UniProtKB/TrEMBL annotation:
GO terms for cellular component: cytosol; host cell cytoplasm; host cell nucleus; nucleus. Its main location: host cell. Interacts with host FBXW7; leading to FBXW7 autoubiquitination and subsequent degradation. This is Peptidyl-prolyl cis-trans isomerase. It comes from Entomoneis paludosa. It is found in: Host cytoplasm; Host nucleus. One of its GO terms (molecular function) is peptidyl-prolyl cis-trans isomerase activity. Residues 29-149 form the PpiC domain. InterPro entries: PPIase_dom_sf, PPIase_Pin1, PPIase_PpiC. Peptidyl-prolyl cis/trans isomerase (PPIase) that acts as a key virulence factor by promoting host leukocyte transformation. Binds to and isomerizes specific phosphorylated Ser/Thr-Pro (pSer/Thr-Pro) motifs in a subset of proteins, resulting in conformational changes in the proteins. Promotes host leukocyte transformation by binding to phosphorylated host FBXW7, disrupting dimerization and promoting FBXW7 autoubiquitination and subsequent degradation. Degradation of host FBXW7, leads to stabilization of JUN, which promotes cell transformation.
Length: 149
């Protein structure tokens, strides 16, 4: 009975070679990989989008958040099935995101701490794998995140 409840220590588990740099310590992962959808608004840091040939964005912050809430409703329908959630997220990111990462289905790749804006980093590192965020607001605009790894 005692052995069944013993915790496995991180150092007892030998990660495979590619995972060594992403080892999870007591403070969480050193890197995460997320998909994201960015909706910029007129008060964003750079209020233009590659989707509109860099024309100025005129929607308000509230309108951007409202649009993302609509996308969240669609994503929540697939939340029980991670494969469907990822596929739907990638499709929406490629069609709806104002970030150039839309060309990669919203994939930002792996990044470590202090590489993104603090609010974005906090949300990304706070998610579990295959977990969807709520709306995260930064100076760049409003985002939805999905942690992959």
């Amino acid at each position: 009975p005692e052995a069944a409840t013993a915790a496995i220590k991180t150092e007892d588990v030998k990660p495979s070679a590619p995972d060594k740099k992403r080892r999870t310590g007591s403070s969480g992962p050193s890197e995460v990989r997320v998909l994201h959808i960015l909706r910029k608004h007129k008060d964003s840091r750079r209020p233009s989008s590659w989707r509109t040939n860099n024309q100025p964005i005129t929607i308000t912050r509230e309108e951007a958040v409202e649009e993302l809430n609509g996308l969240l409703e669609i994503l929540h329908e697939d939340q029980a099935n991670p494969e469907n959630l990822i596929a739907t997220f990638k499709e929406l990111a490629s069609e709806e995101s104002d970030c150039s990462s839309a060309k990669r289905n919203g994939d930002l790749g792996f990044f470590g701490r202090k590489k993104m804006r603090p609010e974005f980093e906090e949300a990304a590192f706070g998610l579990d794998i295959n977990q969807l965020s709520g709306i995260v607001e930064t100076a760049s605009g409003a985002h939805i995140l999905l942690r992959l790894e």
